[in-house]
Amino acid sequence: HVPILRHMNVPVFDGAHIVAVAGVANKAEPYDDTDVVQLSLLMDGMWAHVRRLRAAEALRENEEKYRGLFESAGEGILILDGRRIIDCNRAAEVMFGIGLDKLVGSDVVMLSPSRQPDGSESDVVADDYIRRASGGEAVSFEWVHMRADGSFFFTEVSLSPLNLTSGVRVLAFIRDVSTHKT
């Protein structure tokens, strides 16, 4: 073992907790306050890097969980920015008979006949529901949707506000209830 002639330790803090202790030894001259500051800065930078790596890993894991839940849901799920679809799950693709590439970016009203069974205009009513959900209200209603082949089907729709860093979006859960209606 190399003999230790001089030695210096500095604690590494994360908030009020010591998470590591860094030590150096055998500098040719005695350690001074400048050495303490430099080693502290180096170790603080390394600990910040470790925290960033851990945060990135946690984010990846959360994204995997979100994507797993999103894709495994039996209901169609759409994420809306106004009336524009910005994401959807596989169940929505199957429900509407339209691929992700065609759904994302399109107007959600294109998934409905021009009028609902009560005679109301789909785009006017949809705008009201989306406005209410964007304003923070959870909204549930029955709706007639239209598949890519032009066939209609009955659904129960739940809209909720989705607060993202980019702004409020609307999360739409769509359940096909046609078997209950016929």
Describe this structure in words.
The chain is an alpha+beta fold and 182 residues long. Helices cover 37% and strands 32% of the residues. It contains five helices and seven strands; from the N terminus they run E-E-H-E-E-H-H-H-E-E-E-H. The protein has helices at residues 33-72, 90-96, 100-103, 122-134, 178-181, and strands at residues 7-14, 17-25, 76-81, 84-88, 139-146, 152-164, 167-176. A hairpin with a 2-residue loop joins strand 3 (76-81) and strand 4. It is rod-shaped.
Topology:
Elements: E1 7-14, E2 17-25, H1 33-72, E3 76-81, E4 84-88, H2 90-96, H3 100-103, H4 122-134, E5 139-146, E6 152-164, E7 167-176, H5 178-181
Antiparallel strand pairs: 1-2, 3-4, 3-7, 5-6, 6-7
Total helix count?
5
Mean pLDDT: 93
Largest sheet at a glance? 5 strands, antiparallel
Please give the order of strands in the largest beta sheet: 4-3-7-6-5
Low-confidence stretches: none
Helix content: 25-40%
The whole-angstrom Rg is 28 Å
Count the beta strands. 7
Morphology call:
rod-shaped
Strand residue percentage: 25-35%
